[in-house]
Write the structure tokens for this entry.
Amino acid sequence: MFRSVVHAASRWAATELGLDTLPGQVTIKICPLDNYGDALWLDEGKYRVRLSPQQSVKDVLGTLFHELTHIHQYATDRLDLGFKQAVWEGETMQIPKTHSKRPWEIEAFASEKKLLKKYSKGSIFA
Ligand SMILES: [Zn+2]
């Protein structure tokens, strides 16, 4: 169930975000996690989104759009995350402790909301 929904939504979102025109490969894995999902930069041009199945379909899609936005940030070299430091738009900064104060999260949350609204228009997820 999740797999086909996630597959269709990720293709749609890749076009929306412009990910389909960027070089690189994104794999999506659905697996139990201690959070809703994450976006990993594995290697040059290789990215992975992990999604927890322990959430509603709508939340899975929201998480997917959120994490794909992070992939776009990585793939366009706007974001490079270290353990304590990040390079955001060319500037090295300490990663703010508060999640909602990280500029890449602010962007990903806004993107997630926007894409979810657009995707769910007229669908069963509305
Ligand atoms: Zn995030």
User: Anything to note?
Assistant: The pocket of zinc ion is lined by residues 66, 70, 105, 108 (CB under 6 Å). Residues 78 and 91 are 9 Å apart (CA to CA). The two ends are 18 Å apart (CA to CA).
